Amino acid sequence: MILDPRRSVLLTDFDGTLAPIVDEPSAAVPLPGTTELLVGLADVFGRVAVVSGRPVSFLVDRLPGLVGSAVEVVGLYGLEMAGQDGEALPDPDVAPWRPVVRAAAERLAERCPAGVLVEEKGATVTVHWRAAQQEQSWVTEAVAAEASRTGLAVHPARLSLELRPPLVIDKGTVVYRRCTGMAGACYLGDDLGDLPAFDALARWAADEDGVAIRVAVDGDDSAPDVVAEADLVVAGPEAVLGLLDWLAATAG
Fold it and tell me: In whole angstroms, how far apart are CA 190 and each of 84, 104, 195, 218, 228?
């Protein structure tokens, strides 16, 4: 089957997909040329979007060339997206949960062991144990206690746990909405938070007789479940860049 790119969607994660995984989350940057490729692909494909667990402010800072382009920037698993000037536009249901998240982040930061990083993202908070892997049990218990206390939902990720508002919003809802009415769709990701996107892509393909391609980015500590669910596996962000370059050349 030959698909019209204008009726196709290209969606991609950020960390581990466009940007190599690093020990310090704030140090993550996309590979050179990534922004230009995405903007060029948006001239060919019906929709192109970066869908990440990072805040919009972080994504816009790292991918400034996307501001004002046709590429959508979706942050915090769909809890916010970027406006035309790059400002974060939160889902209206998020506002009541922000002080809850802030208080949970403060309590976790006050008592976390050395090496454990508490990353508050406004509407979510992630607790990383990458630099202190012996503290995984502490993180698991502390995050579970905060979830019980606050009503926030726990989501596992790479060497971390995240607390999010208990809303029916995730990468899966983002992906399904953007695929509706299209003929083909591709999603690239590497972590557990990308599994809902893979699942949504499969549901959409069944519901609308669409062509779906789920691409797993297999790095040193990528989630095995993501690789197992994929239709195609590529070896790291460098291979992603090569795939995007090939799409730009062939679809154009």
Answer: 28, 27, 9, 6, 11
List Cβ neighbours of 130 (8 Å cut-off, separation of 6 or more): 23, 117, 158, 159, 160
φ/ψ (deg, to 5) at 228: -65, -30
The number of angstroms, rounded, from the C-alpha of 146 to the middle of its chain's C-alpha atoms is 23
183 Cβ contact list (under 8 Å, min separation 6): 3, 4, 7, 8, 210, 211
Q: Which of 4, 13, 207, 209 is catalytic?
A: 13
Residues 133 and 245 in one domain: no
pLDDT of residue 1: 52
Instruction: Determine whether 199 is an active site residue.
Output: no
73 and 103, same domain (yes or no)? no
Regarding whether 241 and 174 lie in a shared domain, the answer is: yes
**Same domain membership, residue 194 and residue 139:** no
Same domain, 173 and 99: no
Query: What pTM value is reported for the model?
Result: 0.94
Q: Are residues 84 and 139 in the same domain?
A: no
Tens-place pLDDT, residues 216-234: 999 877 889 999 999 999 9
Over residues 150-180, the pLDDT tens digits come to 999 999 998 999 999 999 999 999 999 999 9
Token reading at 12: 């991609």
